[in-house]
């Protein structure tokens, strides 16, 4: 079976690439260029046991809700409904942030 010649864009990337190879999961930058501006919804799922619609309607600013996650526990991070990694909450000044701890 004869080898297929690489396209010129792949050849150009190969000549400019350093001696070490990038991980196989990374695509050449131009392969994603049309998709990069698309929006996606990032969510963190918190399970709140025994939470009812009544509890939801009673929520007020400053209400604390007890979740089953303990402090420092990794929380699932979803992009458009699919899990992409794990994160944990972190206090940054007077704001609550999410630190991405692992991508899957």
Structural account:
With 104 residues, the chain is α+β, with helices and mostly antiparallel strands. The chain has a domain at 39-104: SpoA-like (Surface presentation of antigens (SPOA)), CATH 2.30.330.10. The chain has two helices and four strands; from the N terminus they run H-E-H-E-E-E. It has helices spanning 8-16, 53-57, and strands at 42-44, 75-79, 82-92, 95-103. A four-stranded antiparallel sheet has the order 1-2-3-4, with no helix packed on it. The longest helix has 9 residues, at 8-16. The radius of gyration is 22 Å and the shape is elongated.
How would you summarize what this structure contains?
With 104 residues, this protein is an alpha+beta fold. The protein has two helices and four strands; from the N terminus they run H-E-H-E-E-E.
Cross-sheet strand order for the largest sheet: 1-2-3-4
In CATH, the topology of the domain at 39-104 is named Surface presentation of antigens (SPOA)
Give helix and strand order, one letter per element, not per position.
Answer: HEHEEE
In total, how many beta strands?
A: 4
CATH superfamily of the domain at 39-104: SpoA-like
Distance between the termini: 36 Å
Structural class: alpha+beta
Architecture (CATH level 2) name of the domain at 39-104: Roll
The biggest sheet, with number of strands, parallel, antiparallel or mixed sense and barrel status, is: 4 strands, antiparallel
Mean pLDDT: 76
CATH top level of the domain at 39-104?
A: Mainly Beta
> Regions with pLDDT < 50 over 5+ consecutive residues?
1-20
The level of helicity is 10-25%
β-strand percent reads 25-35%
Q: Based on CA inertia axes, which overall geometry fits?
A: elongated
Q: What is the tally of helical segments?
A: 2
């Amino acid at each position: 079976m004869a080898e297929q010649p690489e396209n010129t864009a792949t050849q150009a990337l190969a000549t400019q690439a350093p001696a070490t190879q990038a991980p196989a999961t990374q695509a050449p930058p131009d392969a994603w260029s049309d998709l990069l501006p698309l929006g996606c919804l990032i969510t963190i799922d918190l399970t709140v046991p025994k939470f009812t619609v009544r509890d939801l309607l009673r929520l007020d600013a400053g209400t604390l809700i007890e979740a089953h996650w303990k402090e420092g526990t990794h929380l699932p991070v979803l992009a458009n409904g699919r899990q992409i990694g794990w994160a944990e909450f972190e206090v940054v000044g007077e704001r609550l942030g999410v630190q991405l701890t692992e991508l899957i």
